[in-house]
Each structure stands twice: as C-alpha cells, then as structure tokens.
Task: inverse folding
C-alpha cells in the first residue's frame, strides 16, 4: 500500500512493477541483473483517485500516460533494484500530490493608465524614428 496523502492511499493491486535490464555503465552486473524498474499504475480505473485528480494527473503525466489509461514510470538510476523501486514509487506519489492540488484560477487584470500612456509614447517615438529614415532630398 502506497500512502500519498491523509485521504489517498493506493492499493498494491493497482501498481504493477516489472524489472528489466538496465542500460549504461555497470559492467557484468548490467548484463546479469534486472535492476531497472518499470512501474505501471492503472490510474484510469483507480478507485482511490477522484475524477478531476485523474484529469490533472493525465495532463501532468504527458507521454507517460498510455491509451489504456495507465501511468508508466521507469527508473534505472541506481544499480540497486530496491532503490530504483523506491525512487519510482516516490515519483508516482509526487506526481499524484501535484495532481491533487487544483491550479490557481487566473484573475484577469487590466493595464494601468500609466502603462497605457508609456506604451503609446514609446510607439510614437519609434514611429518618429522610422519616419526620419526616409530618402533625403539633395539640394543641387
């Protein structure tokens, strides 16, 4: 069981962990031992997450979200299988914690009178500079 917040806990049956061989340095250890973890969380069918949380989680997950509604996290940072498993679970918990907090609603603001005047003044100055770039008449 993975505890995310006081109200959200993910059951073990919702998470599947598959251990695969890791890439990168490690010598013979890389060729023999499956240390990298591929954590699969069935988020779409999870009863522990509310609907809005699932939609925010889907947006946060990006490419890690599959068409079946599963969230796949991979970790092969360390040579230890247990440590990689722990890191992947921590990442999942952090991702869900971010999805739980709703984003702040943006309150539209209007530009101040001073900023409007400054903008118009700079446009006028720029226009005058460009107007002076015209052809010069020769006096012969």
Result:
């Amino acid at each position: 069981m993975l505890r995310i917040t006081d109200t959200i806990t993910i059951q073990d049956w919702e998470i599947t962990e598959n251990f695969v061989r890791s890439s990168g340095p490690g010598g013979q250890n890389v060729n023999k031992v499956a240390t990298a973890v591929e954590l699969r969380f069935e988020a779409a069918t999870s009863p522990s997450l509310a609907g809005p949380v699932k939609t925010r989680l889907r947006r946060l997950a990006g490419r890690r979200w599959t068409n079946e509604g599963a969230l796949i996290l991979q970790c092969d940072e360390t040579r230890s299988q247990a440590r990689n498993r722990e890191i992947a679970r921590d990442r999942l918990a952090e991702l869900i914690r971010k999805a739980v907090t709703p984003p702040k609603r943006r309150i539209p603001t209007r530009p101040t009178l001073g900023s409007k005047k400054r903008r118009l003044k700079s446009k006028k100055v720029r226009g005058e500079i460009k107007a002076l770039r015209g052809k010069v008449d020769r006096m012969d």
